Amino acid sequence: MKYHTFCIVAGSLACNARCAWCVAGMTPKNQVSDAKAPEIDVDSFQRACRIAEMNNLDTARITSKGEPTIFPEQVTQYLQLLQPWRFPFIEMQTNGILIAKRKPVTDEHLRTWRKLGLTHMCISVVSSDPERNRLNYTPREKQYIDLRKLIDDLHAFGFNVRMTLIMQRGDVDSPESLKQFMAFCRTHRVEQITALPVNKPTASRDGKLYDAAVKAALSDEQLREIHAFADKHGAVIATLPWGAKIYDIGGQNLCLSSCLTVSPDANESRQLIFLPPGRITTDWQYEGAVIYDLPKAAQKVIKI
Questions:
Q1: Cα–Cα distance measured from residue 92 to residue 161, given in angstroms and rounded to the nearest whole number
Q2: How many CB atoms lie within 10 A of CB 246?
Q3: Which of these, 237, 254, 274, 242, lies nearest to 179 by C-alpha position?
Q4: Cα(153)–Cα(96) distance, rounded to whole angstroms?
Q5: What is the C-alpha to C-alpha distance for residues 34 and 110, in angstroms, rounded to an integer?
Q6: What is the dihedral of CA 91, 94, 96, 101, to 10 degrees?
Q7: CA geometry: angle at 168 spanning 162 and 171, to 5°?
């Protein structure tokens, strides 16, 4: 089996955002704790790293079933464990809120993460409009973070910034609104954009989230128009095995993708996923897609 992306799950199901269509909330828990971050079984993690190395993967992605920056010490631990494997690129998927607030993430965390090899911060947004992001991510707060300042701060610490743009009805849902978002990114020298539509798994463990995803999803026609715009005005830099395309559009890097698309080749998997304490799987949607799992009897000797 060949894998294309190495995903590392940090933290727990705990999240400081309130996304109505949270895809992590729809897919299986995969034994991830509701509140606290479990210890990492080092042997299992090294096994996952070895599989990634055998597949010549150049990137490790720290992500979460919640928000990884709630547990900054575990992020640091993962980066330390990744040191011997010398991945050229290590990225973290985050909503960026706790980094912007510097609590619990501190300047010292950011300096340490950079020193340990973290290269890219991937910030999830639905728009460049702070009020639209507030309504989608932090509706209980009066203000959204200063996204411009966050980008500047991350650049100052030496990170590349990738905006993970979740396209939904009423926000970025057309070529024109995508162009406006790209203009914001060019102005603030955002290195990369990954734009993907609100998506839903085949089956959801949360009906309310599923219904919200259906309501927010772009139509087939809207998606066709966005892809036609990119094909017409962009130069294709790469086409990934699961169909995602990376473009140069007026000097801006843009990837049009989907968060749940699987590889069409039965002998390939889009991702290799490590979930603590010691599960290695290949799919976010199907809990049975396990290639290794630390036995529960062995977990008893791990301090969780």
A1: 10
A2: 20
A3: 254
A4: 11
A5: 26
A6: -100
A7: 80
Q: DSSP assignment, residue 52?
A: H
φ, ψ dihedrals at 46, nearest 5°: -65, -35
Determine the length of the chain: 304
Q: How far apart are CA 223 and CA 173, in angstroms?
A: 8
| Preceding peptide of 197 cis, ω within 30° | no
CA geometry: angle 49, 23, 38, nearest 5 deg:
45
Q: Residue 52 corresponds to which tokens in the numbers above?
A: 């990634």
pTM: 0.93
Q: What is 102-132 written as a DSSP string?
A: TSSS-HHHHHHHHHTT--EEEEEES-S-HHH
* Cβ-contact 72, 104 below 8 angstroms: yes
Q: Which residue has 């990119």 as its token pair? A: 230
Could you check whether the bond before residue 241 is cis, i.e. omega within 30 degrees of 0? no
pLDDT at 304: 40
Task: For each of the domains in the chain, give its residue range(s) and CATH number, in order of start.
Answer: 2-299 (3.20.20.70)
Going from the first residue of the chain to its last (304 residues), give the mean pLDDT of each consecutive group of 10, the final group possibly shorter. 91 93 87 85 97 96 97 98 97 98 97 98 98 96 97 98 98 98 98 95 86 94 97 96 94 87 63 95 91 81 46
Beta bridge partners of 89: 59
Q: Which of 121, 65, 56, 55 is nearest to 274 (CA)?
A: 65
